[in-house]
């Protein structure tokens, strides 16, 4: 499908209509360039249709159910609360469809040519599409993202063994689910389905969220255990026999569904990169410089396809920068920090690093001393702030309900080179979770108001 009349040559060609790709296309159009975008599936890519938005939609639904079931402590009695999985599925799909249509509208409004099909580089200046369309370009942006990594012996069959995308498109609630993998995807999936009543097992090579601060992970583990999730630590899946996963410690898990969530792989095959000067690194990611240009200087690349962190908001920022570079602006992708959020219970959000060293100090404030957390019975959590000898903020970790909304303050502080004193002296509204950030900063000066360290 082509939305308009495609010219023989465009200023900017974008391969991939995900969050990074369509943002690059829109920014390019805003800068006066003629733009064409090629997308093989749905506009919005994995984020809008299969990953970020669907997962957070289902997490919200599962949280509502859990809150209803636990509302007796607040004096609210609800009997027979349950989820209708068909209605839940329709809502989840409707959210993605609404967002997809919104992206299509924006592209049309900006006069961006949207071409449906598989794109392949015929040369460093031409793209061929599987629908027979071909066109030349002045600059191109590769924004093809990633796909679920595969695990030998556990091939996806769409029924028993599925990837995270399929797990977010179920129109029923499984009785049992075994998740292979222990990163944020596994934790989010496991917790949301456990809240809906699924018996969940997680197979972890080492442990869940092993790259995160263990003070934070300990609180998530506590909640997972309360939900009945069993974490098989320090084991590997060795074989699959029917619905039974055999593990390296000679134990086994029988499950209705097996979800493989062992990471993401860059999507680079079939793009005709061999017809260009674009180079890949040893892990298959597209190699780029600070200007996001590949070894083929008129071809740029952004998002998951160029490596970690493989997060949508990084791709969005790089999409803006790539379009500006393609238009001739002297800009670079020079952001100091990419914040990350795990939508677990409680949420974990981090910007920068909170590791303590001889040159970096860390201050901490517990949510158990925070008025809003006590009122809402969400006391499991804390805020940590890392700062150097000059007081410059180097990292912030927030473990709390609504941590996803609070972490932007931390990212801004790091980008601006703000000090811990700047945070301490900034008035935060009361009563909110964000007060914990200010209290943690005040604690660094030995003057926390609502907590006594002794």
Automatic annotation (TrEMBL):
<dbReference type="GO" id="GO:0050660">
    <property type="term" value="F:flavin adenine dinucleotide binding"/>
</dbReference>
<keyword id="KW-0520">NAD</keyword>
<comment type="similarity">
    <text>Belongs to the class-I pyridine nucleotide-disulfide oxidoreductase family.</text>
</comment>
<dbReference type="GO" id="GO:0006103">
    <property type="term" value="P:2-oxoglutarate metabolic process"/>
</dbReference>
<dbReference type="InterPro" id="IPR004099">
    <property type="entry name" value="Pyr_nucl-diS_OxRdtase_dimer"/>
</dbReference>
<dbReference type="InterPro" id="IPR023753">
    <property type="entry name" value="FAD/NAD-binding_dom"/>
</dbReference>
<keyword id="KW-0274">FAD</keyword>
<protein>
    <recommendedName>
        <fullName>Dihydrolipoyl dehydrogenase</fullName>
        <ecNumber>1.8.1.4</ecNumber>
    </recommendedName>
</protein>
<dbReference type="GO" id="GO:0005737">
    <property type="term" value="C:cytoplasm"/>
</dbReference>
<dbReference type="InterPro" id="IPR001100">
    <property type="entry name" value="Pyr_nuc-diS_OxRdtase"/>
</dbReference>
<keyword id="KW-0676">Redox-active center</keyword>
<feature type="domain" description="FAD/NAD(P)-binding">
    <location>
        <begin position="11"/>
        <end position="319"/>
    </location>
</feature>
<keyword id="KW-0285">Flavoprotein</keyword>
<dbReference type="Pfam" id="PF02852">
    <property type="entry name" value="Pyr_redox_dim"/>
</dbReference>
<dbReference type="InterPro" id="IPR050151">
    <property type="entry name" value="Class-I_Pyr_Nuc-Dis_Oxidored"/>
</dbReference>
<dbReference type="Pfam" id="PF07992">
    <property type="entry name" value="Pyr_redox_2"/>
</dbReference>
<keyword id="KW-0560">Oxidoreductase</keyword>
<dbReference type="InterPro" id="IPR006258">
    <property type="entry name" value="Lipoamide_DH"/>
</dbReference>
<feature type="domain" description="Pyridine nucleotide-disulphide oxidoreductase dimerisation">
    <location>
        <begin position="338"/>
        <end position="441"/>
    </location>
</feature>
<dbReference type="InterPro" id="IPR016156">
    <property type="entry name" value="FAD/NAD-linked_Rdtase_dimer_sf"/>
</dbReference>
<dbReference type="InterPro" id="IPR036188">
    <property type="entry name" value="FAD/NAD-bd_sf"/>
</dbReference>
<dbReference type="GO" id="GO:0004148">
    <property type="term" value="F:dihydrolipoyl dehydrogenase (NADH) activity"/>
</dbReference>
């Amino acid at each position: 499908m082509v939305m308009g009349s495609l010219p023989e040559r465009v200023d900017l060609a974008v391969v991939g209509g995900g969050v990074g790709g369509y943002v690059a296309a829109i920014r390019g159009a805003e800068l006066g360039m003629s733009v064409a975008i090629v997308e093989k599936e749905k506009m919005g890519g994995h984020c809008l249709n299969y990953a970020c938005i669907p997962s957070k939609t289902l997490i919200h639904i599962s949280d509502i159910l859990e809150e209803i079931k636990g509302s007796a402590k607040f004096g609210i009695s609800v009997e027979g609360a349950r989820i209708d999985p068909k209605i839940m599925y329709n809502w989840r799909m409707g959210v993605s469809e609404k967002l997809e249509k919104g992206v299509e509208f924006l592209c049309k409004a900006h006069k961006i040519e949207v071409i449906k099909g598989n794109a392949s580089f015929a040369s460093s200046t031409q793209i061929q599409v599987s629908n027979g369309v071909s066109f030349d370009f002045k600059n191109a942006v590769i924004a093809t993202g990633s796909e679920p990594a595969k695990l030998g012996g556990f091939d996806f069959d769409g029924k028993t063994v599925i990837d995270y995308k399929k797990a977010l498109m179920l129109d029923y609630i499984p009785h049992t689910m075994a998740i292979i993998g222990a990163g944020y995807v596994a934790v989010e999936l496991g917790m949301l389905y456990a809240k809906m009543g699924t018996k969940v097992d997680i197979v972890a090579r080492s442990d869940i969220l092993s790259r995160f601060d263990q003070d934070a992970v300990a609180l998530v583990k506590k909640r997972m255990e309360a939900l009945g999730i069993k974490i098989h630590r320090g084991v590997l899946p060795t074989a699959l026999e029917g619905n039974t996963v055999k593990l390296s410690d000679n134990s086994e898990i029988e499950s209705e569904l097996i979800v493989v969530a062992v990471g993401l792989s860059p999507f680079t095959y079939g793009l005709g990169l061999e017809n260009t000067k674009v180079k890949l690194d040893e892990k298959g990611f597209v190699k780029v410089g600070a200007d996001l240009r590949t070894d083929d200087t008129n071809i740029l690349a952004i998002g998951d396809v160029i490596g970690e962190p493989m997060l949508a908001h990084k791709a969005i920022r790089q999409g803006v920068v790539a379009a500006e570079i393609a238009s001739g602006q002297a800009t670079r992708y020079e952001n100091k920090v990419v914040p990350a959020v795990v939508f677990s219970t409680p949420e974990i959000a981090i910007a920068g690093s909170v590791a303590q060293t001889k040159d970096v100090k860390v201050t901490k404030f517990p949510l158990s001393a925070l008025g809003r957390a006590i009122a809402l019975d969400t006391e499991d959590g804390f805020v940590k702030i890392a700062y150097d000898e000059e007081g410059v903020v180097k990292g912030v970790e927030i473990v709390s309900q609504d941590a996803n909304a609070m972490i932007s303050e931390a990212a801004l502080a790091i980008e601006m080179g703000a000090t811990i004193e700047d945070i301490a002296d900034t008035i935060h509204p009361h009563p909110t979770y964000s007060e914990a950030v200010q209290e943690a900063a005040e604690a660094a000066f030995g003057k926390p108001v609502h907590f006594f360290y002794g």
